[in-house]
Automatic annotation (TrEMBL):
An annotated Gene Ontology molecular function: protein tyrosine kinase activity
Keyword Transmembrane helix carried by entry: yes
Cellular component aspect of the GO annotation: plasma membrane
Naturally occurring in which organism (per UniProt): Eiseniibacteriota bacterium
Record bears the keyword Membrane: yes
UniProt keyword list: Membrane, Transmembrane, Transmembrane helix
Source organism superkingdom: Bacteria
Name of this protein: Polysaccharide chain length determinant N-terminal domain-containing protein
Transmembrane segments: 27-45
Length: 456
């Protein structure tokens, strides 16, 4: 019959063996504990406490653009709008405005509180449209002061630069420019009208046409009188130069010709006397000579009267010629004035058109300026509301003594585990259990360890 030795049962580690391992690897455990404790204490002592101040702002979306219009502003996605607002809080213009506010609060000659953009934070509160704006700083007062400045800068920038405001500088500059150009054209038209003596071009042109027609009629009448006077004078000169024709009278030109008629009668009578005396006396006789002398005197007187009348007729012709010349000059001047009228009318029309356009432009700008003022007063520009100003700063990095105590405690656990791990790597046989595991045989007896005592 085959007999076999039964396998030894596995031994359980005793508390004594556990404590022996801990005692044997005590320096590993204590070293890890000391290193962990010193590291945590050093980091905690080096870490400075920081304070955070938080304020809240409500962003209204989809608001009515103006009280005068029922339409509403179309907005985008909720995440896009609020994400843009978060980035706007951290933007350079808002931070610069916050620095300006802090410099103004500090006063001249005093250093302003610095603003670090990396310490500014903003986030959306839940699924709402409320922004939480915070600032972190080692000093609680500084954190609250800077947070308040950032919130105010954000509100001012959002409501001033991104809202509908009246562009005063643009309208004032544009109105001044158009008014100056309008005044310049009005002055140019006034000077041109004064230099050209123009009041109403159309009426003046119509008056010139009527005046020219009247001048031409009067000139025609004067020309007819002149032609008649010239013809009469030529006939008189021709008749007076003909010896076979009796001296004419001027009853057609002069109403009072009694003196000339009396002279002609006396000449005729004297000729009859001369003829009678020649019948009675010789031609050498004193009676005939006296009668002939008297006749020649009468004829000379009559000739002088006729020549005077002819000269008078010539003076009348000269007068009529001068009158016609005056009409000709006036007609030429009037025609020259009429020829210049189209150019004057064109220039005046261009000036009037330019002035009218400038006046319309000025009226439009003034009307748009009034509309802009109305829109500014009636638009819903306040799309942000301050729900909570920058509150008192609260610490964000405090010394948590519970965590400080947990780190060394965990280091003890890790140290004990490391001690058992290192002891497991050691193959030295120190206990009965090690012997049974190494020899694969049961231990029948064990000699207790005795301490050696010193002999005297």
């Amino acid at each position: 019959m085959n007999t076999s030795i039964p396998a030894p049962a596995s031994r359980q580690a005793t508390a004594r063996e556990f404590l022996a391992i801990v005692f044997r690897r005590r320096w590993v455990i204590l070293g890890l504990f000391a290193a962990t404790t010193l590291t945590v204490v050093a980091l905690t002592l080096q870490q400075k406490a920081e304070y955070m101040s938080v304020g809240r702002v409500l962003v209204k979306r989809g608001e009515q653009e103006s009280m005068l219009t029922p339409t509403r502003r179309v907005v985008g996605q909720w995440e896009e709008d609020l994400g843009s607002e978060v980035q706007l809080v951290k933007s350079h213009p808002v931070l610069e405005r916050a620095r300006e506010l802090l410099r103004a609060e500090a006063g001249p000659g005093r250093p302003a509180t610095p603003v670090d953009g990396a310490r500014v934070d903003a986030e959306v509160v839940g699924k709402s449209t409320v922004l939480a704006i915070a600032y972190v700083d080692p000093d609680s007062a500084t954190a609250r002061r800077v947070c308040d400045a950032v919130i105010r800068a954000y509100l001012e920038f959002r409501q001033r630069d991104l809202s509908l405001t009246y562009p005063r500088a643009f309208f004032e500059e544009e109105i001044a420019r158009v008014q100056g150009e309008l005044d310049r054209w009005v002055e140019a038209r006034r000077q041109f009208s004064n230099s050209e003596e123009l009041v109403n071009v159309v009426e003046q042109q119509r008056a010139l046409i009527g005046h020219l027609a009247g001048l031409e009629i009067r000139r025609s009448e004067a020309a007819a009188d002149l032609a008649e006077a010239r013809s009469l004078q030529q006939q008189l000169e021709r008749l007076s130069a003909d010896p076979n024709i009796d001296l004419p009278t001027f009853s057609q030109l002069y109403s009072n010709e009694s003196a000339l008629v009396d002279l002609k009668r006396r000449v005729t009578e004297q000729e009859a006397i001369v003829a009678q005396r020649r019948e009675r006396y010789r031609d050498e006789s004193p009676e005939v000579a006296n009668a002939l002398a008297t006749l020649e005197s009468l004829r000379a007187m009559l000739r002088r009267e006729v020549e005077a009348r002819i000269k008078i007729s010539g003076s009348k012709v000269a007068t009529l010629e001068a009158r016609v010349a005056v009409f000709d000059r006036e007609i030429a001047a009037t025609r020259a004035e009429l020829e210049r009228m189209p150019d004057r009318e064109t220039r005046i029309a261009n000036m009037d058109r330019r002035i009218s356009l400038l006046r319309d432009r000025l009226e439009q700008i003034v009307e748009k300026s009034d509309q802009a003022r109305v829109v500014e007063r009636t638009s819903m520009s306040n799309s942000l509301y301050l729900l909570a100003p920058a509150g008192a700063a609260v610490p964000t990095r405090t010394r948590d003594y519970v965590r400080l105590a947990l780190a060394p405690a965990f280091s003890l656990v890790v140290g004990i585990g490391l001690a058992f791990f290192l002891d497991g790597l050691d193959l030295t046989v120190r206990t009965a259990g090690h012997a049974e595991e190494a020899a694969d045989l049961p231990v029948l007896a064990a000699v207790n360890e005795r301490r050696r005592t010193a002999t005297r």
